[in-house]
Amino acid sequence: DQKETEAVGGAGLARIKDRVIAQNTTDLDNISGATISSAAFLSAVNDAIEKAGANPADLVAKEDKEGKETEITTDTVIVGAGGAGLSAAIQMAQDGRNVTVIEKAGITGGNSSLASAGMNAAETKLQKEEGVNDTVDLFVEDTMKGGHELNNRDLVEFLAKNSADAVDWLEELGAPLKQLKFAGGQSEMRTHAPINDEGKSIPVGNYLVSKLTAKAKELGVSIVYDARVEKVLMEDGRAVGVEATYKDGEKLTVNAGAVIVATGGFGSNQEMVEKYNPELKGYVSTNAKSIEGDAISFLEEINANFIDMDQIQIHPTVVQKDGSLISEGLRGEGAILVNQDGKRFVDELQTRDFVSKEILSQKDPSAWLIVDQSMFDQSATIAKYFDKGLLTKCDDYKALADLIGTDEETIKETIEGWIEIVKNNEDKEFGRKGMDETRSDLSKAPYYAVQISPGIHHTMGGVEVNTKSEVIDKEGNPIPGLYAAGEVTGGIHGANRLGGNAIADIVVFGRNAAKNAEEYITK
């Protein structure tokens, strides 16, 4: 029995279990990307063997039949098995193409597994059913404004125009997004989120990665794990494959008609973060450990152009002890932020950079995020935060005030003031919008609170691409046969990414890269 996140620890446990059985040994490397979970599993198996009166060291290990191919030929090679890479792979497999995905970790997902709120899309069937008058144009303008107009408008328009179709595509794959939420910077409610069988909110990342991984396997997509791509193979100016190195040092060559790079950003590479933005030295990161900017060096080698590399987003609500991210979706549903005095100090649904700046101007600098029992009962996400020990339960105003370190009267005034704001659908002090869509007014004790402060979350800069997802070189020309999608690219989010736009990005542009790569290899 285990309670691991399905797409991370759960996926690691599935792989390590199969290897233990296949090779009849526990003398195995941990699964990269799920190191702690797989180490715990091996320890548990050893403990069980010893309790049965045997010695794990006496097991006769069988040959590793997983095997390592040293050369592969395929229609298209995709570098990275996160959300963008999986979306591209599934699209190509659906279109009858042979595709190989190379992933440096031992599991799929990357940063996509950690996404929490949902996927932004405009003019969708769900919005129409619920009477949300959103438009593609409004989606574009919100995104441009959120990115401080540094965004590439052509890319933003492509994202918005294709977002509703992407939601439909996910539903066809068996991954419907059935709930609407607000996220920061939105004029209308456009974050589409998943729910579980009980109708409770669940994190979008774990949900999508699990669904996309299962679909990719069902369609026969080949995923090679534990291989780090280090070079794009070029021939007559065209990308014709990649070279990679397995964890054990063995080399892999993949020959392909086209290459799609979907390796993610560099938020877990502190040295690289500091290189591009020295002000972020010492910040905790929310990123998966594998997100280290691998593509930057091998794309620079072939003259690819990079843009906006200093634009690195900090997310406002991060638990500093371990980098756990508290979803923006909670604020969209009714959670509030209070400072060390127990007072609200910001419109919680402003853009991430604005809310982060306001938190950093408070004492410590940090803030407390507060939800109530009503929100807890509606959200499997909140329940999971509590189970992980991130949220502290407070039975009443006094307990909440004691936790924060302020007086009971101030907390009572703040929460009862919020109840009135929701009741009157008007936040006079901070101008928070969407009050009529707030699911909770925090009137139902007990309360649950967590201390947060900003942490590194998303790298908006990356390799330059056009609306065909073609990688652009330093002279402004597309590199034939080379495509990129997801957080590895720059230009879509400008100086600040809106919550919910990352999932839209990976699905829309992952599919776009696949379709244009298909067109290229059939010429």
Task: Pick out its properties.
523 residues, alpha+beta, eight-stranded mixed beta sheet, six-stranded antiparallel beta sheet, 17 helices, 20 strands, globular
Topology of helices and strands:
Elements: H1 6-23, H2 35-51, E1 71-79, H3 83-94, E2 99-102, E3 119-120, H4 125-129, H5 136-146, H6 153-161, H7 163-172, E4 179-181, E5 191-193, H8 204-218, E6 222-224, E7 227-235, E8 238-246, E9 251-261, H9 270-276, H10 294-300, E10 306-307, E11 312-319, E12 324-325, H11 328-333, E13 336-338, H12 352-360, E14 367-372, H13 373-378, H14 380-387, E15 392-394, H15 397-404, H16 408-424, E16 447-459, E17 462-464, E18 470-472, E19 478-484, E20 489-490, H17 501-521
Helix pairs in contact: 1-2, 1-8, 3-8, 3-17, 5-6, 15-16
Strand content: 15-25%
Counted by DSSP, the helix tally is 17
* Rg, Å, rounded: 23 Å
Q: Report the helical percentage.
A: 25-40%
| Large-scale geometry | globular
Number of strands: 20
Major beta sheet, specifics?
A: 8 strands, mixed
Q: Outline the low-pLDDT stretches.
A: none
Derived structural class: alpha+beta
* Chain-averaged pLDDT: 95
**What is the distance, rounded to the nearest whole angstrom, between the alpha carbons of the first and last residues?**
51 Å
